Amino acid sequence: MSKIKNDNHKFPYKWELKTANFTKDKGKVFSCFACGGGSTMGYKLAGFDVLGCNEIDPKMMEAYVKNHKPKYSYLEPIQQFKLRADLPKELYNLDILDGSPPCSSFSMAGNREKDWGKGKVFREGQAMQVLDTLFFDFIDLGKKLQPKVIIAENVKGLLLGNAKSYVIRIYKAFDDAGYYCQHFLLDASKMGVPQKRERVFFIALRKDIATPFLKQVDMFTISPKIDMFFNENPIIFGDYRDQYGIDDDYTDRGKLMQFRIDSDKCCADINMRVYGKNSGFNAMIRHDNEVCGTITSGETDRRYCDGKILTENDLKLTGTFPVDYDFCNEQSKSAAKYFIGMSVPPVMVAQIATRVYENWLSKLT
Asked: Which uninterrupted H or E stretch holds 50?
C-alpha cells in the first residue's frame, strides 16, 4: 500500500471534521434529502454556511445532527416540509438550496419503469413515498424559498431511456419556478474523489439575477454560463487502502475469494468460473491499480489484494467522508457502507459549489 497523497488536488480526500477550516464566507445553504450530510460537508469545505437540513430517515438525521450540529433540522417528508408556514426568514434568503431526491426509481440497477408511480418504503423507519415525484416536491420548495441557486443531484439513469421524459418535466418545473436550468453528467473520479461515481447535477439560477451570465447555446436555448469541466488526476485504491482488510473467510463470499484472479470484477465472475453459479454481481472486487468503482449501499465490497472486506477507513476515504465521522453507534461496517453509498461525496460537491461561487455568486452585488 502506498502512502496517502492529497497533493495536486483542490480538496483533500483525507480530512477530519475537528480540524477542518470552515470559513462560512461564501453564502448560505440549506440541504434537503440530506442523508448523513455528504453534500453538507462539501458546501462547508467550499466555504459555505450550511444552516440545516430536511430528512425523513431518523437514523440519518441522528448522525447528521451529531456530526454537523445544524441550526435548523426538520425530520419529516418533504411533502410536509414544503407546506410549512413557520419557516425562519433565513431560509427565504438562501444562496443555494441543495437536494438529492431519492433516485432508485431511475437507477439502471433497479426495476426502473416497473417502479414508477408506485409507493415505496425506502428504508425502515421511513414513510411510504412515490420516489419519482420527490424531485418535483423539491422544486416546489425552491419556488417557495426562491434561493439564488438550486442544485439537485441524481443518478445517471435519469438521462437514459424512457426516464428522459422526466428530465423534460424537470426543466419545465424549474422554468415555472422562475429558474434557468442546465444539467451536467459528472464523474467524481475526475474531481479529486477516489471513486468512479457518475452523477447528474441540475444547476438552476434564478432568472431575475441571471442576465449578466446568459449565453446563447443554440438558436433555441439560452442558459447561464458556468464552467463544469474537471480533470484532476485519478486516485487509485492502492494509494490509500488500509494495510489489512476485514476477515470473513467463514462466509460463502469470503471462501469464494480464494479463487480470485486478476480479471475478476465481482464475486459473480468467480462464482460462474468455479461453480457455474450466476450469483454475486453486486459484490464488487476493488483492485489496487484501479480507481474504486461506485460505492453503493448494498452488498459488501472486497479487496483483491487480500480477498477481505473493505474497512471503514477504506470506505470513508473512497467516499471522501471525514475520517472522524460518527455513525452514532450503528454497526460500523454496515453503517459506513450504507451512509457513504447513499451520500454524494463531499469533495464532489465542494468542487461544484466552488464553481457556482466563482462563476455566479461572487459576481452578484
From this structure: strand 49-55
Q: Do 115 and 203 fall within a single domain?
A: yes
Mapping DSSP to helix (H, G, I), strand (E, B) and coil, where does residue 233 land? coil
Domain identity same for 25 and 143: yes
**Which of these, 192, 193, 173, lies nearest to 183 by C-alpha position?**
173
What is d(CA 68, CA 87) in angstroms, rounded to the nearest whole number? 20
Q: Are 102 and 57 in contact (CB under 8 A)?
A: no
DSSP at 218: S
Same domain? For 100 and 249 the reply is no
Distance between CA atoms of residues 35 and 50, nearest Å: 14
Count of domains in the chain?
Answer: 2
Q: How far does Cα 335 stand from its chain's mean position?
A: 16
Could you tell me the CATH number of the domain that includes residue 197? 3.40.50.150
Same domain, 186 and 329: no
Whether 307 is in a domain gets the answer yes
Q: Is residue 287 part of a domain?
A: yes
Are the beta carbons of 353 and 14 closer than 8 angstroms? no
User: Could you tell me the pTM of the whole model?
Assistant: 0.91
Sign of the torsion angle spanned by Cα atoms 75, 76, 82, 85: negative
Provide the domain limits for residue 324: 237-341
205 with 276, same domain: the answer is no
> Annotated catalytic, 305?
no
Query: Which one is catalytic: 32, 35, 53, 103?
Result: 103
Helix, strand, coil share of the chain (percent; to 5): 35, 20, 45
Residue-wise pLDDT tens for the chain (365 aa)?
445 555 689 999 999 999 999 999 999 999 999 999 999 999 999 999 999 999 999 999 999 999 999 999 999 999 999 999 999 999 999 999 999 998 655 544 544 455 445 545 555 455 555 567 899 999 999 999 999 999 999 999 889 888 788 899 999 999 999 999 999 999 999 999 999 999 999 999 999 999 999 988 777 788 999 999 999 999 999 999 999 999 999 999 999 999 999 999 999 999 999 999 999 999 999 999 999 999 999 889 999 999 999 999 999 999 999 999 999 976 656 899 999 999 999 999 999 999 999 999 999 97
Tell me if 2 is assigned to some domain. Answer: no
Pair 190, 306 in one domain: no
